[in-house]
Heparinase II/III-like C-terminal domain-containing protein
Amino acid sequence: MVNYNAVHADDSADHFIGQPPPKKRTSPWIRIGLPVLVAILVIVGAVLGGVLGSRAARDNNNSSSSSSSGSDGDTAPSDPSAVASVKNDIGLFPTSSNTEFSIPLYPSTTNGAAFSTPTVNSQLAWPKDTFAPSSPAPTSVREDRPRLFAPKQKWDALPDFIKQDPYMKSWDKTIQDYANSLLDQGPVAYYMDGDSGILDISREVKQRVKALSYTYRMTTDTKFVDRVYLELQSAAGNSEGSTFTETDRWNSAHFLDTAEMAMAFGIAYDWLHDVWTDDQKTTIRAAINDHALTYGVDALNNNAWWTQNIRGNWNCVCNAGLTVASLAIIDEDDAGHASALLGLTIDNAKQNCAMAVSSDGTWAETPNYWYFGTMGHAEMANALITATGSDYELMTVNPDFKKTGEFHMHVYGATSMFEYGDHGPNKFSSTANSIMFYGDYYNIPQYSLFQRDRWDAAEPWAMFWYNPGLTGAYWDGKEVDGFFDDDLDQWVAMRSSWTDQNAVYVGMKAGSLQGHQTHNDLDVGDFVLDAMGTRWAGEFGSGDYLSTDYFASQAQDAVRWTYYRKETQGQNTLVIGGNNQLVTATPKILNKGSSGTKQGSSTVMPWEGTAFWVVDMTSAYDATSVKRGVRMFNNRRQVLIQDEVNSSAGVQWTMHTNATVSTDGTKATLERDGKTLQMEILSPSGASFTTTPSTGGDKDQPNPGITTVMITLDAGSNDIQVLFSPQWGSDVELKTPKSVALDDWSLDSHDS
Ligand SMILES: *[C@@H]1O[C@H](CO)[C@@H](O)[C@H](O)[C@H]1NC(C)=O
Ligand SMILES: *[C@@H]1O[C@H](CO)[C@@H](O)[C@H](O)[C@H]1NC(C)=O
Ligand SMILES: *[C@@H]1O[C@H](CO)[C@@H](O)[C@H](O)[C@H]1NC(C)=O
């Protein structure tokens, strides 16, 4: 089990930062075993013992019950000094090992004092950087080193913060454990991996170099410097026995590989500048120049494809790697590439990378590509600020960029992400820590508070991007529903709670099918559904990136749209006439509403309110009219999905699930993780569920264990209503909504 945040938890497994823990298939409470259960009780005990009376303890310290126990809020007065120390008292939250994204497991408590309004205590925050040039220029770097990400004064302040802050303490330990584990391992094996080149290798080198360089600076033990150099020499093709003869060793034809390697070398060069020998410095600079910067100058001067109208991760990652490497060596660069690049990358990233966030905060590619793109953006902006004193408007040129943390938080469901479209390659050091940087820069503490509880926070950027002066709970006062209306993506997220792993969460999207860097699926109307700690309706993610013409085109007849995971048939939506959706679709949001429900400071969220979203999907089909609506029902305990279709071809309602499904006419019973959810067709009468294994075709990847649940209907006018009822148990009354036409949906249209 890999559990970065739970300091008390069993951490016997390898600490390999940046790799999601393997998904396990049992209940978290069983799987995480005794150590974490003890930890939770200790945590709850500490919170309640320190701040609250004993009544709430009796109500809430049963870790195996859901937070739906309905206990009323405890209004114990909050003693300010207790509140200030409560971060320490609480310690860290364990993370679930049975969800793909290791959702934090919050103790169920109505302790409002522990989870207060997000604020920054400036006395505990970082000291201000003394380097503040009056007229910053990209090529004019600070004199002291490190100049990138973490100036000396931050390193100097770090040991005390690590002592005081349980998060920083745990991240520091994870990073140092990881660095130590690398000491007896050889460098990352260097080989060309088919068409995808050395991207994984570059990213792993970067991840290792960051942790090793960090650990050297924290310990001053030069064995970490030697280990960094071993990694760099291998990656530069300088090791004895290296088979490299060509200069283009970092695969500039797939420039991400080059850029990530350049970033790794830039960080190592800068952070260890005071211990490298002159020979080592010359060797590292030569590698940066020969294998990256020369190709970078060429790419930007000759308008390489990723420099032109690319609103996505490629532009961010490539410009960021070149910028960081250039800043690292600029004052020692005889070749002049570094200063040439700093005259090119910033404007290019402002026109492209910074514009990959839509007006509503959504990342233009997909929720997974957001990681790569925002990480590159944050690294580039932060490196420019620390090294030269300005971000040159990379952070503000797109006024909506600051909303992208909201996108990430809402796309993060109760068990997993609403992970539509392609997922991208292994992330390694592309974590969600970009939102810690954004949280601090834009003064949105919720972003950092959200991320600090996540398993992927534990890597060196967190040590500098997290603000140790933060206190409070990200969910305090936060609306549970999120509506994202930009035409590019149009999507909604509704949930019953931010902190209950058993919460009901529904994400549904419409939006344009093109304009996502060919990472989209034909998926207008697609949805995911979580309840009771389980994902019931889910996504397939990426197809095989190496399959024929996977990225070649996004036209209607593109080969991409013949792969099961990308075609409409492979989505949780309607298929009409057996055809794919039309790539020209321009769906329209017809109506939406939310009770405006906000979570309070408590992790115990009452089941209340509703939300709904109705979209016109007609333009995605060869049909007269197609509308889809989704709503929370019965105080968010149940979900209704309704479609109104007029078509001259037959309709297939489709959903994919990891659950075991048994059908009985209008009902389907789904079982997973020891939980049960029932689906019922309320309309049209006479329709019934069928199932089939989600095999796809010969050229598709297998989808083991996935079942397609379908309703097959004739041409004509169809009103399809499917009710999803998690089987909560005898204390929750399940209801059947009345039938209301989509045009008449409102907040109270389904009451009574
Ligand atoms: C804890 O909650 C579970 C589930 O609600 C229940 O079965 C169990 O009896 C409770 N235990 C205690 C000690 O209250
Ligand atoms: C099935 O489970 C896997 C692993 O958790 C997940 O990645 C995938 O999205 C799920 N698929 C569906 C169709 O729910
Ligand atoms: C759908 O078909 C029904 C029945 O033929 C008709 O009454 C209705 O007006 C149609 N709606 C749309 C939006 O085409």
User: Anything to note?
Assistant: The chain has two domains: 4-121+144-471, 480-734. The domain at 4-121+144-471 is CATH 1.50.10.100 (Glycosyltransferase). The longest strand covers residues 716-726. The pocket of 2-acetamido-2-deoxy-beta-D-glucopyranose (ligand 2) is lined by residues 23, 100, 535, 538-540, 656-658, 706 (CB under 6 Å).
